[in-house]
Amino acid sequence: MKKVYLLLALISVSVFAQKKFDNIKSEKLGTERRITIGLPASYESNPTKKYPVLYLLDGDYLFDPFSGNLSYGSYWDDLPEMIIIGIHQNKEEERYDDTTIDEITGLPFEKGAQFFEFVGAELIPYIEKKYRTTPFRIVAGHDTTASFINFYLYKEQPIFNAYICFSPELAPKMEVRIPEKFAKITEPVFYYISVADGDNKKLKEPIEKLDSNIKIANNPLVNYKYDVFKNTTHYTQVLHAIPSALYQIFEAYRPINSEEYNNKIVVLQSGFADYLENKYAVMSKMMGIEVPVRMSDFKVIENLILKNKAYDELGKMAEIANVTYPKAMLGEYELGLMYEKMDDPKRASKKYQNASQMEPIGDLNKDLMYEKIDQMNTLAKKTK
Predict the structure, then answer these.
(1) For residues 251, 255, 258 and 260, what is the CA-based torsion angle, rounded to 10 degrees?
(2) Range of 269's domain?
(3) pLDDT per residue over 241-264, tens digit each?
(4) Residues 142/203, Cβ–Cβ less than 8 Å
(5) What is the DSSP letter of 358?
(6) Are residues 107 and 138 in the same domain?
(7) What range does the record give for the signal peptide (predicted)?
(8) Distance from the Cα of residue 299 to its chain's centroid
C-alpha cells in the first residue's frame, strides 16, 4: 500500500510540477483576488504546446482533488494535461458576497454581479494573455458556487465549454432556464451534475426537476451526465464526482478501450477509418488538443478493417498515417497491405519497397518490408 501512495505522490509531482500563487488586481471587485495556478510539467519543456484551462470556484479546497485526478489520468494518457486555475474564496463572507443573487430575478446581484464580471472580463483574459491556452475552458463549483457557474450559460455566447456542478444549490428559475438554453444551443457543450444521497431534500428536488427538463430538451449537442452517489455526504461525494466528470468530458481523448470498441466501433458496418479520423478531429477542433493518432488506436482499427475485409479503407488509413507520421513507413505500408489483400502483388511490392526507404515505426521495420517484398514478388511470378 505504501508503494501505491508513493506512486500517486510521484505522479502528482511529475505531472503538475508547477504550482504557484498570484494576486490579480481587479477593478470589478475593487480589490485583489488570490488565485492558485497549476501548470503541467511539460509546460516549460514543450514551449509550443497549448493547454485547456480548468477554472475552479472554491479553488481553496477543490484545487488539490482536481490536480490529483488530472495527474493520475495524464500519467496513463486517459486525460489531457491542462492548466488549473483555483479562485480563492476561503473567507465565508467573501464566498457569500461572490455568489450574491437577486431572489426575485434569480440573477447575480451587487457583489455577485461584480464577481461574475471579474471572472469573465478580467480573470480569463489575464490567464489567456499570460499562458498558452486552447479555446477549451472548463468551470467547476460546489453547492453555491456550482449554481453560480450556470449564469455563464445564460450569456448569448457562453464563455465556457464544460460545466461541472457538485450538489448545486440552484438559484430561482434555474431548473427551467438552463434547459431552455440547452434547447437553443448550436455549439457543443458538456454539462455535469452530481448529488449525494446524503444531500437534503430541499437541495435535491430542484436538481431532479432540472435533470428531467434537460432530458426533455434532448439536444444532441449537450453532452450531459447526472450522477447520484450512494453512501456519500454533501462533501464526500465530490471525491467520487471529480473523475466521473473529467472522464465524461474527455471521453474522446482516451485511447480506444474495450467499452468504446464494443459499443461504438464493432457495431459499425463500414467507416472504420473515418471513425478514427473523427475521434482525433474532435480533440483538435472542439478542445484545441493536438494529439498524434496513437499507434495502439491505429492498430485496433487496422485489425478491424482486415477482419471485416473492408480493404479499400486501408487507403484512408494511409492518408491518416501520412498526415500524422509523414516520414514514417506506415502510410506506404498501409497501401501495400491494401494491394496485397486485393490480390495485386505487383503494386503491393512497390509500396512495400517505398516503405522500406522510410523511417521505422511501431512494429514496422525494414526487415519486415523486405520480407513482404519477397512474398509479393513470389506471388507475382505465380500469377503470370
Answers:
(1) 40
(2) 258-382
(3) 999 999 999 998 999 999 999 999
(4) no
(5) S
(6) yes
(7) 1-17
(8) 22
